[in-house]
Amino acid sequence: MHEFYYNLKQRNKEFPLPPGDLGWPFIGNTLAFLKHFSSGHPDSFISNIVSKYGRNGIYKTHLFGNPSVIVCEGEMCKRMLTDDETFKIGYPKSTIEVVRCKCIWSFSKEEHRRFRRLISSLTMGHNTLETYLTRIEDNVINSLEELSSMNHPVEFLKETKNISFNIIIDILLGSYNQHIINKIGNSFTEMYSALFSMPINLPGFAFRKGLMAREKLGKLVKPIVEERRLMIKNGERKDLLDVLLQAKDEDGWKPEDEDIIDILIGIVLAGHEATASGMMWSMIYLTQNPHTLEKAKKEQEEIMKTRLPTQKHLSLKYIKKMNYLSQVINEMMRLTSMNFAIFREATIDVNINGYTIPKGWKVLTWIRAIHMDPTYYPNPNEFNPSRWDDHNKVGSFFPFGAGSRYCPGSDLAKIEISIFLHYFLLNYKLELVNPKCPITSLPSPKPTDNCLAKVIKNSNIA
Ligand code: HEM
């Protein structure tokens, strides 16, 4: 009946809907999606569709309450991500309402351009990034030292989240009341868990918890912004937040306090969870593939030898020399695909490869499927950083998206992960408690034990 309803609506269209099935009314295929993703077999969701409907690269489905088209072919995805007129941003209701940040979801071109320019000025460019290195290094060095001093296993993912959260807070706010920062961190964790929840606003449901966490975050961040405004009036200037508070673009637009709260929440949310996951997965893959660990460690030792004795800190010049490490990070991003898909919505009826995507349908560029496609990546399940020696990324690698919404924090994230790995590889070892721990993939992949592991300092290895 569900299928029939949509086919009837499309009956006068020149081209048919893509192959696929729309599942049950209202819930569509969301339960099947949740089953595959929470049980740690996210790729079987797509491989089931492919084995049923052939290697078409485009399929219809119904997910998160919307009729949708899944796209898993590189060129088609690139086309959709770079054509803002035909495909606008289209995340599910739960994601948009829980995050509620104009700076990420801005629908008008003008608003997006303004926010994006402001955020990019804080997160991009050689000189800007260079100024963050010491803060990143200090946070990494202190945290790893503390972790290795514990004589018991820790939830490594929670620890990398603390590290990346402290880094982004340090960059944005400088040092601040730790009690408030902890409360902010907890609210982010609740929000993140609700990103792809069923949009049911009833007590006990993840969606309700996510909405409440977002509300609380706004209340926690507001006094910080107000306090800083006052400090600026008194002539004190400290951190990036102050830059935001004094920002003005060429048309004379100045962000209001509400916009600034929005940007702070948006940057922290977009900026720390995926980066933390990247730190953890890099160490898991390296630990489970000792020859890659050895090679990565050797490269860092060589870099240390070239560092002048007067050079106490890492600089971007040294990070750029970490060629193998950047391949490790690419390979980790490919295998992990923190964002399984990038969501768009068709603004008009579109004909693509002989099929119609109707206006208003969601378009899910399923980047995870592209990253695991053996035609682009032979033996896709293998962790093989050396495949990047001669891999051409065009149309087959989208960990940070593409087009006008390409992640403005991509360089910062890669630098944070590189610095973390640099110090980890040189001085520590990771001992996993459950090396075969099952994985869950919602909202992004992680071991179900949060990567229970010991961080052991090299000098303490018997
Ligand atoms: C490994 C870490 C990261 C991953 C995998 C990642 C991934 C992504 C992806 C795929 C998008 C595009 C979304 C879309 O097109 O709909 C995006 C956008 C964005 N990211 Fe990241 N990101 C990471 C780190 C960061 C960091 C560190 C920051 C900031 C400090 C950041 C800030 C943003 C913002 C503000 C957007 C929205 C851009 C826009 O709509 O114009 N991200 N990210």
Automatic annotation (TrEMBL):
Biological process annotations from GO: brassinosteroid biosynthetic process; brassinosteroid homeostasis; sterol metabolic process
Gene Ontology CC annotation, any one: membrane
Membrane recorded as keyword: yes
Pfam families assigned to the protein according to its UniProt record, in alphabetical order: p450
Membrane topology qualifier: Single-pass membrane protein
Descriptive protein name: Beta-amyrin 11-oxidase
Binding residues annotated for heme, in chain numbering: 407
Recorded GO MF terms: ent-kaurenoic acid monooxygenase activity; heme binding; iron ion binding
Gene3D superfamilies: Cytochrome P450
Cross-referenced CDD domains: CYP90-like
The entry's keywords: Heme, Iron, Membrane, Metal-binding, Monooxygenase, Oxidoreductase, Transmembrane, Transmembrane helix
Cofactor(s) the protein needs: heme
InterPro entries to which the protein is assigned, alphabetical: Cyt_P450, Cyt_P450_CS, Cyt_P450_E_grp-I, Cyt_P450_sf
Localization of this protein: Membrane
PROSITE patterns: CYTOCHROME_P450 (PS00086)
Keyword tRNA-binding: no
Family: Belongs to the cytochrome P450 family.
